[in-house]
Design brief:
The complex is a heterodimer. Chain A is an all-alpha fold. Chain A contains eight helices and no strands. Helix content of chain B is about 35%, strand content about 20%. At the A-B interface, helix 1, helix 2, helix 4, helix 6 and helix 7 of A face helix 1, helix 7 and strand 6 of B. The structure holds zinc ion (ZN).
Chain lengths: ~230, ~300
Protein backbone atom coordinates (compact mmCIF):
# COMPACT_ATOMS: atom_id res chain seq x y z
CA UNK A 1 0.00 0.00 0.00
CA UNK A 2 2.68 2.45 1.05
CA UNK A 3 4.80 1.55 -1.97
CA UNK A 4 1.85 2.12 -4.27
CA UNK A 5 1.09 5.56 -2.85
CA UNK A 6 4.75 6.48 -3.23
CA UNK A 7 4.74 5.44 -6.87
CA UNK A 8 1.60 7.47 -7.54
CA UNK A 9 3.13 10.53 -5.92
CA UNK A 10 6.23 10.10 -8.03
CA UNK A 11 4.10 9.78 -11.14
CA UNK A 12 2.09 12.91 -10.37
CA UNK A 13 5.31 14.78 -9.65
CA UNK A 14 6.63 13.72 -13.02
CA UNK A 15 3.42 14.87 -14.76
CA UNK A 16 3.52 18.19 -12.94
CA UNK A 17 7.17 18.62 -13.94
CA UNK A 18 6.38 17.90 -17.59
CA UNK A 19 3.46 20.35 -17.52
CA UNK A 20 5.59 23.05 -15.94
CA UNK A 21 8.23 22.55 -18.63
CA UNK A 22 5.64 22.74 -21.42
CA UNK A 23 4.14 25.86 -19.86
CA UNK A 24 7.47 27.62 -19.49
CA UNK A 25 8.45 26.70 -23.07
CA UNK A 26 5.15 28.17 -24.25
CA UNK A 27 5.86 31.39 -22.36
CA UNK A 28 9.40 31.55 -23.76
CA UNK A 29 8.08 31.16 -27.32
CA UNK A 30 5.47 33.88 -26.75
CA UNK A 31 8.07 36.38 -25.44
CA UNK A 32 10.27 35.73 -28.50
CA UNK A 33 7.33 36.13 -30.89
CA UNK A 34 6.39 39.45 -29.26
CA UNK A 35 9.95 40.74 -29.50
CA UNK A 36 10.41 39.71 -33.14
CA UNK A 37 7.18 41.47 -34.07
CA UNK A 38 8.12 44.70 -32.30
CA UNK A 39 11.45 44.68 -34.16
CA UNK A 40 9.99 43.70 -37.53
CA UNK A 41 7.02 46.07 -37.30
CA UNK A 42 8.52 48.67 -39.63
CA UNK A 43 10.08 46.12 -41.98
CA UNK A 44 7.35 46.46 -44.64
CA UNK A 45 8.04 50.20 -45.03
CA UNK A 46 11.75 49.51 -45.43
CA UNK A 47 11.16 46.65 -47.88
CA UNK A 48 8.86 48.98 -49.84
CA UNK A 49 11.57 51.65 -50.04
CA UNK A 50 14.09 49.04 -51.18
CA UNK A 51 11.76 47.61 -53.82
CA UNK A 52 10.96 51.10 -55.15
CA UNK A 53 14.69 51.74 -55.53
CA UNK A 54 15.12 48.39 -57.31
CA UNK A 55 12.28 49.23 -59.70
CA UNK A 56 13.90 52.56 -60.51
CA UNK A 57 17.21 50.78 -61.18
CA UNK A 58 15.47 48.26 -63.45
CA UNK A 59 13.81 51.15 -65.33
CA UNK A 60 17.12 52.87 -65.77
CA UNK A 61 19.22 49.94 -66.94
CA UNK A 62 16.87 47.18 -68.15
CA UNK A 63 13.81 48.85 -69.73
CA UNK A 64 15.39 50.17 -72.94
CA UNK A 65 17.58 47.09 -73.71
CA UNK A 66 14.68 44.67 -73.08
CA UNK A 67 12.28 46.71 -75.21
CA UNK A 68 14.91 46.70 -77.93
CA UNK A 69 15.34 42.93 -77.59
CA UNK A 70 11.56 42.40 -77.74
CA UNK A 71 11.48 44.58 -80.87
CA UNK A 72 14.19 42.54 -82.63
CA UNK A 73 12.54 39.25 -81.66
CA UNK A 74 9.15 40.60 -82.73
CA UNK A 75 7.37 39.77 -79.45
CA UNK A 76 5.32 41.95 -77.10
CA UNK A 77 7.55 43.74 -74.59
CA UNK A 78 5.56 42.37 -71.62
CA UNK A 79 7.28 39.03 -72.29
CA UNK A 80 10.36 40.51 -70.59
CA UNK A 81 9.05 43.42 -68.52
CA UNK A 82 7.12 42.44 -65.45
CA UNK A 83 8.49 44.50 -62.57
CA UNK A 84 6.14 47.45 -63.12
CA UNK A 85 3.17 45.13 -62.53
CA UNK A 86 4.15 44.29 -58.93
CA UNK A 87 1.78 45.78 -56.35
CA UNK A 88 4.52 47.09 -54.07
CA UNK A 89 2.30 47.59 -51.01
CA UNK A 90 1.01 44.03 -50.89
CA UNK A 91 4.34 42.52 -51.94
CA UNK A 92 6.33 44.28 -49.23
CA UNK A 93 3.78 43.34 -46.57
CA UNK A 94 4.09 39.66 -47.54
CA UNK A 95 7.90 39.82 -47.61
CA UNK A 96 7.97 41.42 -44.16
CA UNK A 97 5.58 38.77 -42.85
CA UNK A 98 7.81 36.06 -44.34
CA UNK A 99 10.95 37.50 -42.71
CA UNK A 100 9.13 37.74 -39.40
CA UNK A 101 7.95 34.12 -39.63
CA UNK A 102 11.41 32.79 -40.56
CA UNK A 103 13.09 34.73 -37.73
CA UNK A 104 10.54 33.53 -35.19
CA UNK A 105 10.90 29.91 -36.26
CA UNK A 106 14.73 30.07 -36.26
CA UNK A 107 14.78 31.58 -32.77
CA UNK A 108 12.17 29.13 -31.42
CA UNK A 109 14.23 26.29 -32.87
CA UNK A 110 17.31 27.50 -31.02
CA UNK A 111 15.83 26.57 -27.64
CA UNK A 112 12.65 24.50 -28.02
CA UNK A 113 14.17 21.39 -29.57
CA UNK A 114 17.31 21.34 -27.46
CA UNK A 115 18.11 18.78 -24.75
CA UNK A 116 17.88 20.23 -21.26
CA UNK A 117 21.24 21.80 -20.46
CA UNK A 118 20.69 24.58 -18.01
CA UNK A 119 24.26 25.39 -17.04
CA UNK A 120 26.20 27.88 -19.12
CA UNK A 121 29.81 26.94 -19.57
CA UNK A 122 32.48 29.24 -20.92
CA UNK A 123 34.73 26.46 -22.21
CA UNK A 124 31.78 24.86 -23.99
CA UNK A 125 30.91 28.21 -25.60
CA UNK A 126 34.54 28.64 -26.76
CA UNK A 127 34.38 25.30 -28.53
CA UNK A 128 31.09 26.39 -30.19
CA UNK A 129 32.54 29.65 -31.50
CA UNK A 130 31.20 30.38 -35.01
CA UNK A 131 29.00 32.96 -36.75
CA UNK A 132 26.00 31.34 -35.11
CA UNK A 133 27.53 31.42 -31.62
CA UNK A 134 28.35 35.11 -32.06
CA UNK A 135 25.05 36.23 -33.62
CA UNK A 136 22.45 34.12 -31.83
CA UNK A 137 23.05 35.28 -28.22
CA UNK A 138 23.05 38.94 -29.31
CA UNK A 139 19.96 38.67 -31.49
CA UNK A 140 18.05 36.58 -28.97
CA UNK A 141 18.91 38.99 -26.14
CA UNK A 142 17.63 42.00 -28.11
CA UNK A 143 14.50 40.16 -29.18
CA UNK A 144 13.75 38.96 -25.63
CA UNK A 145 14.17 42.45 -24.15
CA UNK A 146 11.92 43.84 -26.88
CA UNK A 147 9.36 41.10 -26.14
CA UNK A 148 9.27 41.97 -22.44
CA UNK A 149 8.78 45.64 -23.30
CA UNK A 150 6.06 44.78 -25.79
CA UNK A 151 4.23 42.84 -23.07
CA UNK A 152 4.54 45.77 -20.64
CA UNK A 153 3.10 48.08 -23.31
CA UNK A 154 0.22 45.69 -23.92
CA UNK A 155 -0.65 45.63 -20.21
CA UNK A 156 -0.31 49.41 -19.94
CA UNK A 157 -2.81 49.76 -22.81
CA UNK A 158 -5.38 47.84 -20.77
CA UNK A 159 -4.96 49.90 -17.60
CA UNK A 160 -6.69 53.24 -17.06
CA UNK A 161 -4.27 56.14 -17.38
CA UNK A 162 -2.51 56.95 -14.13
CA UNK A 163 -3.88 53.84 -12.42
CA UNK A 164 -0.81 51.70 -12.02
CA UNK A 165 2.42 53.58 -12.31
CA UNK A 166 4.80 52.85 -15.20
CA UNK A 167 7.09 51.32 -12.55
CA UNK A 168 4.72 48.47 -11.78
CA UNK A 169 4.29 47.77 -15.50
CA UNK A 170 8.08 47.81 -15.76
CA UNK A 171 8.31 45.35 -12.87
CA UNK A 172 5.93 43.06 -14.72
CA UNK A 173 8.25 43.22 -17.73
CA UNK A 174 11.18 42.31 -15.47
CA UNK A 175 9.23 39.37 -14.01
CA UNK A 176 8.58 38.05 -17.51
CA UNK A 177 12.26 38.56 -18.32
CA UNK A 178 13.25 36.54 -15.24
CA UNK A 179 10.74 33.71 -15.63
CA UNK A 180 10.60 33.31 -19.45
CA UNK A 181 13.17 35.52 -21.21
CA UNK A 182 16.33 34.61 -19.31
CA UNK A 183 15.60 30.83 -19.24
CA UNK A 184 15.03 30.89 -23.01
CA UNK A 185 18.35 32.68 -23.59
CA UNK A 186 20.22 30.26 -21.30
CA UNK A 187 18.64 27.27 -23.01
CA UNK A 188 19.63 28.52 -26.46
CA UNK A 189 23.19 29.51 -25.55
CA UNK A 190 23.88 26.37 -23.49
CA UNK A 191 22.70 24.23 -26.38
CA UNK A 192 25.19 25.62 -28.90
CA UNK A 193 26.99 22.61 -30.39
CA UNK A 194 30.78 22.54 -30.80
CA UNK A 195 31.44 24.04 -34.22
CA UNK A 196 33.31 22.46 -37.10
CA UNK A 197 33.71 25.68 -39.06
CA UNK A 198 33.54 29.44 -38.53
CA UNK A 199 30.92 29.82 -41.23
CA UNK A 200 28.28 27.83 -39.34
CA UNK A 201 25.04 29.83 -39.16
CA UNK A 202 26.11 32.28 -41.85
CA UNK A 203 22.97 31.84 -43.97
CA UNK A 204 20.53 32.20 -41.07
CA UNK A 205 22.48 35.27 -39.89
CA UNK A 206 21.37 37.05 -43.08
CA UNK A 207 17.80 37.04 -41.71
CA UNK A 208 18.54 37.13 -37.97
CA UNK A 209 21.05 40.00 -37.90
CA UNK A 210 18.80 42.75 -39.36
CA UNK A 211 15.86 41.82 -37.13
CA UNK A 212 18.21 41.62 -34.14
CA UNK A 213 19.63 45.05 -34.92
CA UNK A 214 16.10 46.53 -35.17
CA UNK A 215 15.24 44.91 -31.84
CA UNK A 216 18.28 46.51 -30.17
CA UNK A 217 17.56 49.90 -31.75
CA UNK A 218 13.78 50.21 -31.30
CA UNK A 219 12.83 47.44 -28.92
CA UNK A 220 14.54 48.59 -25.76
CA UNK A 221 13.36 51.61 -23.75
CA UNK A 222 16.84 52.69 -22.68
CA UNK A 223 18.33 54.87 -25.40
CA UNK A 224 15.98 57.73 -24.58
CA UNK A 225 17.38 57.84 -21.03
CA UNK A 226 20.96 58.30 -22.25
CA UNK A 227 22.18 61.90 -22.50
CA UNK B 1 2.90 30.40 -4.77
CA UNK B 2 5.58 30.71 -7.41
CA UNK B 3 3.60 28.28 -9.58
CA UNK B 4 0.55 30.55 -9.49
CA UNK B 5 2.61 33.65 -10.27
CA UNK B 6 4.16 31.85 -13.23
CA UNK B 7 0.74 30.79 -14.45
CA UNK B 8 -0.53 34.39 -14.36
CA UNK B 9 2.57 35.59 -16.22
CA UNK B 10 2.08 32.83 -18.79
CA UNK B 11 -1.54 33.82 -19.41
CA UNK B 12 -0.46 37.45 -19.81
CA UNK B 13 2.32 36.66 -22.27
CA UNK B 14 0.07 34.41 -24.34
CA UNK B 15 -2.71 37.01 -24.39
CA UNK B 16 -0.26 39.68 -25.56
CA UNK B 17 1.00 37.32 -28.27
CA UNK B 18 -2.60 36.66 -29.33
CA UNK B 19 -3.46 40.34 -29.78
CA UNK B 20 -0.14 41.86 -30.87
CA UNK B 21 1.54 39.48 -33.33
CA UNK B 22 0.72 38.01 -36.76
CA UNK B 23 0.95 34.56 -35.16
CA UNK B 24 -1.95 35.56 -32.93
CA UNK B 25 -3.84 36.94 -35.93
CA UNK B 26 -3.29 33.66 -37.77
CA UNK B 27 -4.60 31.69 -34.77
CA UNK B 28 -7.67 33.94 -34.58
CA UNK B 29 -8.17 33.09 -38.26
CA UNK B 30 -7.88 29.34 -37.62
CA UNK B 31 -10.32 29.52 -34.68
CA UNK B 32 -12.84 31.54 -36.72
CA UNK B 33 -12.51 29.06 -39.57
CA UNK B 34 -13.15 26.13 -37.20
CA UNK B 35 -16.25 27.86 -35.84
CA UNK B 36 -17.47 28.71 -39.33
CA UNK B 37 -17.26 32.45 -38.66
CA UNK B 38 -15.76 34.85 -41.22
CA UNK B 39 -11.96 35.04 -40.96
CA UNK B 40 -10.11 38.34 -40.49
CA UNK B 41 -9.29 40.06 -43.75
CA UNK B 42 -5.65 38.88 -44.06
CA UNK B 43 -5.81 38.98 -47.85
CA UNK B 44 -7.91 42.14 -48.18
CA UNK B 45 -5.65 43.67 -50.82
CA UNK B 46 -6.08 40.67 -53.09
CA UNK B 47 -9.88 40.81 -53.19
CA UNK B 48 -11.71 42.57 -55.98
CA UNK B 49 -14.41 44.49 -54.08
CA UNK B 50 -13.59 47.69 -52.29
CA UNK B 51 -14.32 47.47 -48.49
CA UNK B 52 -18.03 48.04 -47.82
CA UNK B 53 -17.48 50.99 -45.44
CA UNK B 54 -15.34 52.81 -48.01
CA UNK B 55 -17.90 52.10 -50.73
CA UNK B 56 -20.63 53.73 -48.60
CA UNK B 57 -18.37 56.74 -47.98
CA UNK B 58 -17.75 57.06 -51.72
CA UNK B 59 -21.50 57.22 -52.29
CA UNK B 60 -21.97 59.74 -49.45
CA UNK B 61 -19.15 61.90 -50.85
CA UNK B 62 -20.73 61.95 -54.30
CA UNK B 63 -24.08 62.87 -52.72
CA UNK B 64 -22.44 65.79 -50.85
CA UNK B 65 -21.61 67.32 -54.27
CA UNK B 66 -18.34 69.05 -53.43
CA UNK B 67 -17.12 72.03 -55.43
CA UNK B 68 -15.42 71.61 -58.79
CA UNK B 69 -12.20 69.63 -58.55
CA UNK B 70 -8.88 71.02 -59.60
CA UNK B 71 -5.30 71.49 -58.55
CA UNK B 72 -4.82 73.77 -55.57
CA UNK B 73 -1.64 75.17 -54.01
CA UNK B 74 -1.67 72.53 -51.30
CA UNK B 75 -3.67 70.69 -48.68
CA UNK B 76 -5.16 73.05 -46.19
CA UNK B 77 -7.74 72.39 -43.57
CA UNK B 78 -7.64 75.76 -41.89
CA UNK B 79 -9.37 77.79 -44.55
CA UNK B 80 -12.94 76.72 -45.35
CA UNK B 81 -12.37 76.72 -49.11
CA UNK B 82 -8.80 75.45 -48.82
CA UNK B 83 -9.46 71.93 -49.96
CA UNK B 84 -13.04 71.01 -50.86
CA UNK B 85 -12.12 67.41 -51.73
CA UNK B 86 -10.45 66.75 -48.38
CA UNK B 87 -13.21 68.45 -46.37
CA UNK B 88 -15.84 66.44 -48.24
CA UNK B 89 -13.85 63.23 -47.73
CA UNK B 90 -13.60 63.84 -43.98
CA UNK B 91 -17.33 64.60 -43.70
CA UNK B 92 -18.28 61.56 -45.76
CA UNK B 93 -15.89 59.05 -44.21
CA UNK B 94 -15.28 60.18 -40.63
CA UNK B 95 -18.59 61.93 -39.93
CA UNK B 96 -19.76 65.56 -39.90
CA UNK B 97 -18.42 66.31 -36.41
CA UNK B 98 -14.90 65.07 -37.26
CA UNK B 99 -14.13 67.99 -39.57
CA UNK B 100 -14.37 70.64 -36.83
CA UNK B 101 -12.31 68.49 -34.45
CA UNK B 102 -9.57 67.90 -37.02
CA UNK B 103 -9.48 71.60 -37.92
CA UNK B 104 -9.31 72.51 -34.23
CA UNK B 105 -5.98 70.65 -33.95
CA UNK B 106 -4.53 73.50 -36.04
CA UNK B 107 -1.74 71.49 -37.67
CA UNK B 108 -0.10 72.50 -40.93
CA UNK B 109 -0.14 68.96 -42.25
CA UNK B 110 -3.64 67.53 -42.73
CA UNK B 111 -2.18 64.02 -42.76
CA UNK B 112 -0.72 64.46 -39.29
CA UNK B 113 -3.93 66.14 -38.09
CA UNK B 114 -6.08 63.28 -39.39
CA UNK B 115 -3.80 60.69 -37.88
CA UNK B 116 -3.72 62.37 -34.51
CA UNK B 117 -7.50 62.75 -34.52
CA UNK B 118 -8.01 59.12 -35.52
CA UNK B 119 -5.61 57.75 -32.91
CA UNK B 120 -7.19 59.56 -29.99
CA UNK B 121 -5.55 61.42 -27.13
CA UNK B 122 -4.57 58.70 -24.63
CA UNK B 123 -3.01 56.21 -27.04
CA UNK B 124 -1.17 59.07 -28.75
CA UNK B 125 0.35 60.40 -25.49
CA UNK B 126 1.40 56.86 -24.63
CA UNK B 127 3.04 56.31 -28.00
CA UNK B 128 4.96 59.58 -27.68
CA UNK B 129 6.22 58.69 -24.19
CA UNK B 130 7.29 55.22 -25.34
CA UNK B 131 9.02 56.54 -28.45
CA UNK B 132 10.98 58.98 -26.27
CA UNK B 133 12.02 56.10 -24.01
CA UNK B 134 13.27 54.24 -27.09
CA UNK B 135 15.36 57.28 -28.03
CA UNK B 136 13.14 58.66 -30.80
CA UNK B 137 12.21 62.32 -30.95
CA UNK B 138 9.92 64.46 -33.12
CA UNK B 139 6.53 63.43 -31.71
CA UNK B 140 4.72 65.37 -34.46
CA UNK B 141 5.89 62.83 -37.04
CA UNK B 142 3.91 59.66 -36.62
CA UNK B 143 6.15 57.44 -38.72
CA UNK B 144 8.31 56.27 -35.85
CA UNK B 145 5.60 56.33 -33.21
CA UNK B 146 3.15 53.96 -34.84
CA UNK B 147 4.77 50.81 -33.52
CA UNK B 148 4.31 52.02 -29.95
CA UNK B 149 0.59 52.61 -30.32
CA UNK B 150 -1.86 50.11 -28.85
CA UNK B 151 -2.39 47.74 -31.77
CA UNK B 152 -6.15 48.35 -32.01
CA UNK B 153 -5.70 52.14 -32.04
CA UNK B 154 -2.92 51.92 -34.64
CA UNK B 155 -4.95 49.72 -36.98
CA UNK B 156 -8.02 51.95 -36.65
CA UNK B 157 -6.05 55.14 -37.29
CA UNK B 158 -4.11 53.71 -40.24
CA UNK B 159 -7.28 52.66 -41.90
CA UNK B 160 -9.22 55.85 -41.23
CA UNK B 161 -6.43 58.13 -42.45
CA UNK B 162 -5.57 56.01 -45.49
CA UNK B 163 -9.15 55.71 -46.65
CA UNK B 164 -9.95 59.39 -46.08
CA UNK B 165 -6.94 60.58 -48.06
CA UNK B 166 -7.72 58.08 -50.83
CA UNK B 167 -11.29 59.38 -50.95
CA UNK B 168 -10.07 63.00 -51.16
CA UNK B 169 -7.67 62.02 -53.96
CA UNK B 170 -10.50 60.39 -55.91
CA UNK B 171 -12.77 63.42 -55.44
CA UNK B 172 -10.04 65.59 -56.98
CA UNK B 173 -9.82 63.50 -60.16
CA UNK B 174 -11.12 64.85 -63.44
CA UNK B 175 -12.43 63.02 -66.52
CA UNK B 176 -9.71 61.98 -68.99
CA UNK B 177 -11.67 63.10 -72.08
CA UNK B 178 -14.63 65.44 -72.73
CA UNK B 179 -17.10 64.58 -69.93
CA UNK B 180 -19.89 64.60 -72.51
CA UNK B 181 -18.40 61.49 -74.14
CA UNK B 182 -20.78 58.51 -74.25
CA UNK B 183 -19.94 55.56 -71.98
CA UNK B 184 -20.20 52.58 -74.34
CA UNK B 185 -19.71 49.98 -71.62
CA UNK B 186 -20.05 50.61 -67.90
CA UNK B 187 -18.26 49.26 -64.85
CA UNK B 188 -19.41 45.92 -63.45
CA UNK B 189 -19.95 42.30 -64.38
CA UNK B 190 -20.65 41.72 -68.05
CA UNK B 191 -20.23 39.07 -70.70
CA UNK B 192 -16.94 39.79 -72.39
CA UNK B 193 -17.46 40.51 -76.14
CA UNK B 194 -14.35 38.53 -77.18
CA UNK B 195 -13.90 35.90 -74.47
CA UNK B 196 -17.64 35.27 -73.99
CA UNK B 197 -17.16 34.76 -70.23
CA UNK B 198 -18.75 36.62 -67.33
CA UNK B 199 -16.05 38.92 -66.04
CA UNK B 200 -15.74 42.06 -63.95
CA UNK B 201 -15.25 44.99 -66.29
CA UNK B 202 -12.80 46.95 -64.15
CA UNK B 203 -13.46 50.38 -65.63
CA UNK B 204 -15.58 52.25 -68.17
CA UNK B 205 -15.28 52.26 -71.95
CA UNK B 206 -15.54 55.72 -73.47
CA UNK B 207 -16.57 56.04 -77.11
CA UNK B 208 -13.88 58.28 -78.58
CA UNK B 209 -12.62 58.36 -82.19
CA UNK B 210 -9.08 57.25 -83.03
CA UNK B 211 -6.39 59.71 -82.05
CA UNK B 212 -8.39 61.57 -79.37
CA UNK B 213 -6.17 63.20 -76.75
CA UNK B 214 -6.38 61.49 -73.35
CA UNK B 215 -5.50 63.61 -70.30
CA UNK B 216 -4.26 62.59 -66.85
CA UNK B 217 -7.21 62.46 -64.44
CA UNK B 218 -4.97 63.67 -61.64
CA UNK B 219 -1.39 64.59 -60.87
CA UNK B 220 0.98 61.79 -60.04
CA UNK B 221 3.67 59.46 -61.27
CA UNK B 222 3.60 57.17 -64.31
CA UNK B 223 3.59 53.58 -62.99
CA UNK B 224 3.40 51.99 -66.42
CA UNK B 225 3.59 53.22 -69.99
CA UNK B 226 3.97 50.42 -72.49
CA UNK B 227 2.26 47.78 -74.58
CA UNK B 228 0.73 44.55 -73.39
CA UNK B 229 -1.62 41.99 -74.93
CA UNK B 230 -4.78 42.96 -73.04
CA UNK B 231 -4.50 46.71 -72.43
CA UNK B 232 -2.67 47.43 -75.67
CA UNK B 233 -0.70 50.64 -75.43
CA UNK B 234 -1.58 51.68 -71.92
CA UNK B 235 -0.72 54.12 -69.17
CA UNK B 236 -1.18 53.63 -65.44
CA UNK B 237 -0.82 56.60 -63.10
CA UNK B 238 -0.21 56.57 -59.35
CA UNK B 239 -1.92 59.53 -57.65
CA UNK B 240 -0.73 58.66 -54.14
CA UNK B 241 -2.70 57.36 -51.15
CA UNK B 242 -3.33 54.07 -52.95
CA UNK B 243 -5.28 55.67 -55.82
CA UNK B 244 -4.37 54.82 -59.41
CA UNK B 245 -5.99 55.32 -62.81
CA UNK B 246 -5.34 53.42 -66.02
CA UNK B 247 -5.91 54.21 -69.68
CA UNK B 248 -5.95 51.42 -72.27
CA UNK B 249 -6.06 50.68 -76.01
CA UNK B 250 -4.06 53.79 -77.00
CA UNK B 251 -2.56 54.54 -80.39
CA UNK B 252 0.42 56.44 -79.07
CA UNK B 253 1.86 57.15 -75.62
CA UNK B 254 3.24 60.55 -74.65
CA UNK B 255 4.72 59.70 -71.26
CA UNK B 256 7.39 57.38 -69.86
CA UNK B 257 7.44 55.21 -66.77
CA UNK B 258 8.61 57.02 -63.65
CA UNK B 259 7.80 60.44 -65.09
CA UNK B 260 5.76 62.94 -63.05
CA UNK B 261 2.56 64.19 -64.69
CA UNK B 262 0.19 67.02 -63.81
CA UNK B 263 -3.58 66.82 -63.86
CA UNK B 264 -4.82 67.60 -67.38
CA UNK B 265 -1.51 66.70 -69.04
CA UNK B 266 -1.84 64.74 -72.29
CA UNK B 267 -0.68 61.16 -71.69
CA UNK B 268 -1.98 59.20 -74.67
CA UNK B 269 -3.76 59.31 -78.02
CA UNK B 270 -6.67 56.88 -78.06
CA UNK B 271 -6.75 53.92 -80.43
CA UNK B 272 -7.83 50.29 -80.60
CA UNK B 273 -4.77 48.29 -79.55
CA UNK B 274 -4.75 45.20 -77.33
CA UNK B 275 -7.90 43.17 -76.64
CA UNK B 276 -10.34 45.67 -78.15
CA UNK B 277 -13.29 45.42 -80.52
CA UNK B 278 -13.09 48.97 -81.87
CA UNK B 279 -11.72 52.43 -81.14
CA UNK B 280 -12.42 53.38 -77.50
CA UNK B 281 -10.71 54.46 -74.31
CA UNK B 282 -10.85 52.09 -71.33
CA UNK B 283 -10.58 54.19 -68.17
CA UNK B 284 -10.03 52.41 -64.85
CA UNK B 285 -9.85 53.62 -61.26
CA UNK B 286 -8.42 51.67 -58.33
CA UNK B 287 -8.36 52.40 -54.61
CA UNK B 288 -5.92 50.27 -52.61
CA UNK B 289 -5.76 47.85 -55.54
CA UNK B 290 -9.56 47.44 -55.66
CA UNK B 291 -11.31 48.42 -58.90
CA UNK B 292 -13.90 51.17 -58.35
CA UNK B 293 -16.53 52.58 -60.73
CA UNK B 294 -15.26 56.02 -61.86
CA UNK B 295 -18.52 57.12 -63.48
CA UNK B 296 -20.11 58.79 -60.39
CA UNK B 297 -17.28 61.29 -60.48
CA UNK B 298 -17.80 62.29 -64.10
CA UNK B 299 -20.49 64.97 -63.71
CA UNK B 300 -18.12 67.05 -61.64
CA UNK B 301 -16.43 68.83 -64.52
CA UNK B 302 -13.25 68.02 -66.34
CA UNK B 303 -10.05 69.87 -65.74
CA UNK B 304 -8.74 68.07 -68.79
CA UNK B 305 -11.02 70.27 -70.89
CA UNK B 306 -10.37 73.41 -68.94
CA UNK B 307 -6.60 73.30 -69.32
CA UNK B 308 -5.30 70.88 -71.92
CA UNK B 309 -1.52 70.94 -71.94
CA UNK B 310 0.37 69.66 -74.93
CA UNK B 311 3.81 68.26 -74.22
ZN1 LIG C 1 -12.93 48.32 -71.06
Amino acid sequence: MGVRLGAMLNWSDAVAGKLARVASTLGQCAVVALGVHLAADSLDDQVMAGMTALQALADLYLLAPLQGLAGTLGVASDAFIWWDEIELGAASAWIALFVEAVTTILLWGSFVLTPRQDALSWSRYRRALSVRALILPLVLAGVILAGCWSLSMGVEDLLPRGGLSPWSVGLLGLAVLARFGWPAWVRAVAALEPSRSWAEGLSSAVVLAPVGALAWIYGIPLWGLLP
Amino acid sequence: MRGWADLILLVGVLAACWTRTPIGAAMVGVVSLAQGRPTPDLLASFRTEVPAALQRSLERAVALKPAEPGPRPGWSLSSPDGDPALTTAIQAHLGPEALAQVQALGLASPEAALEIWAVGRTPRDRAIARARAAGLSAPESFEAHRRFLPSAAAARANRAVGETLALATVLDLSWPVDPGTRISSGFGYRTHPILGTRKLHEGVDLAVPLGTDVFAAGSGRVLRARHDKICGNGVKLDHGHGVSTSYCHGQKLFVQRGQRVEQGQRVMASGSTGRSTGPHLHFGLRIGGHPVDPSPFRARGAVADAQPQAL
